[in-house]
């Protein structure tokens, strides 16, 4: 054995190490360059909504006459094969609820006429917004993306301009709502909270009460959240919301709820616990399976001149 | 090299082959023994339902007075974390439909009181059945299992005994129904058909019409089915159904619909095409994601004496 041999091996190994570190640095630099590059001059950099249409429903102003406080239900949505069915299903639930104004905030840059037509067809007073996600939040190369934040902030900006009383509630279009929850939240003084079923691996998210008093939280992901609650698990009164100017929802994945409630300076004493002291489940965080991309089979020329051409117009064909 | 060596290898290979074949035979024999063995004396070997409760709703007989033909909506269901939310969502849609009798057929051997209580709470006339799947169909070690057949056949047996007029429609609890479909099927003469969205990879199942006349089928899986339609894509008038005694749904996965329509001796001439000559989608075959098994965290003793004990009662905790 020559004495130089092991030394040569060490030299090669050191070179490899140096190269590996250099390669790592290059990869990181390119990664962050790409992450923070891209179109910064964009018309969608603000969450302020383009208010497209506001409609008082088939009964007009008269239909909104009632002694009940008005309910503002905020629903973020976006174009996908399930969009119309989801809105249909939720709409048919909301049709049972009196004195309700539905704020449908679309993550889109142009009006989805199918959505507007559907909303008009069911006769609920509604406002339809375009609230596209600002591009700077629309890509994240690791972790999760914040969801529905531009939609909800957009609708809340509208509320700050147009609402004076009543209660607001965030109702995603794939959740399931027992009608009783709308009766319960109607008279929220500041903030109300209640259990949500089918959330995370625990299958439930709820405040924990002992003898009717708050003692903690039950949720599959508590982490460092001050309010580890689901978006569907609380409602806020409009006067309380208006009393804290400019409080909005942060663009931080997983911290949308707690961030918003923190921004509103909510304390435990501000919270009413509903649903029979949080012993009933009236809201479920159901998820609809994403449809496999609809095939292009429907586009086949052999179907020209048939009903498939009209059906295709209302589908998302990929 | 010794000449016996290759010969020895061949002998070993032959022995291995014989052993492999023998092993295969043993595996197959054991497989079929297990497949066709098991409890054959079971109380659940018939699809005839145990009728548990029938209720005319909060308005009683009076509520069913109307010139409209009655709609019988058959919904198969089974115990799972999503069962109550799904029935809640569908129930809130059906609450909008006049003169409807909801036939809820549970794949269970004992009453799910939560389901019965929910049905009573929404005020729709309903009949709740126990229609457990016969055990001989409940395991299949390859291929697919027939789904909801005992439920639907059970409800249809009840219809043969109790119904004289009106229309029946199979409405799974996770589908989405635009209210317009219930208006459309109400006056079905024999069999009506219409498009169903979000089915298979084509995203649509529908009769194909040219100039208003039937020319074929569009569905992601045509195969050798005479009627390649989805369960939610047709309705049958009660008089037509009663005119073919004993026609029921076969226990053949994938052939439930076409088998049933064949058993009814349906021909193309018997079919009315609804939804504006099959140019509109009023029904979607939405699927709700199965919840991950709820964790047992809620059972932790530290929650004794809190609201979690009541919440746990209405959950499916695995």
Automatic annotation (TrEMBL), chains A, B:
Q: What class of enzyme is it?
A: transferase
How does the record classify its membrane topology? Answer: Single-pass type II membrane protein
Q: What is its main location?
A: Golgi
- According to its UniProt record, the EC number is 2.4.1.135
Q: Which CDD domains match?
A: GlcAT-I
Binding-site residues for Mn(2+), renumbered to this chain: 174
InterPro entries per record? Glyco_trans_43, Nucleotide-diphossugar_trans
Q: Which cofactors must be present for this protein to function?
A: Mn(2+)
**Where does the protein end up?**
Golgi apparatus membrane
| Catalytic activity line of the entry | 3-O-(beta-D-galactosyl-(1->3)-beta-D-galactosyl-(1->4)-beta-D-xylosyl)-L-seryl-[protein] + UDP-alpha-D-glucuronate = 3-O-(beta-D-GlcA-(1->3)-beta-D-Gal-(1->3)-beta-D-Gal-(1->4)-beta-D-Xyl)-L-seryl-[protein] + UDP + H(+)
Q: Which UniProt keywords apply?
A: Glycoprotein, Golgi apparatus, Manganese, Membrane, Metal-binding, Signal-anchor, Transferase, Transmembrane, Transmembrane helix
Q: Which domain of life is it from?
A: Eukaryota
Record's Gene Ontology CC terms?
Answer: Golgi membrane
Write out the pathway annotation from the protein's UniProt entry. Protein modification; protein glycosylation
The positions flagged as active site in the entry are 257 (proton donor/acceptor)
**GO molecular function terms noted in the UniProt entry:** galactosylgalactosylxylosylprotein 3-beta-glucuronosyltransferase activity; metal ion binding
A Pfam family annotated for this UniProt entry:
Glyco_transf_43
Carbohydrate-modified residues: 277
The record lists the membrane-crossing segments as: 16-36
Q: Which GO terms describe its biological process?
A: carbohydrate metabolic process; chondroitin sulfate proteoglycan biosynthetic process
The protein's matches in PANTHER family, at most eight in alphabetical order, are given as: GALACTOSYLGALACTOSYLXYLOSYLPROTEIN 3-BETA-GLUCURONOSYLTRANSFERASE BETA-1,3-GLUCURONYLTRANSFERASE, GALACTOSYLGALACTOSYLXYLOSYLPROTEIN 3-BETA-GLUCURONOSYLTRANSFERASE P
Return the similarity comment.
Belongs to the glycosyltransferase 43 family.
Question: What protein name is recorded for this chain?
Answer: Galactosylgalactosylxylosylprotein 3-beta-glucuronosyltransferase
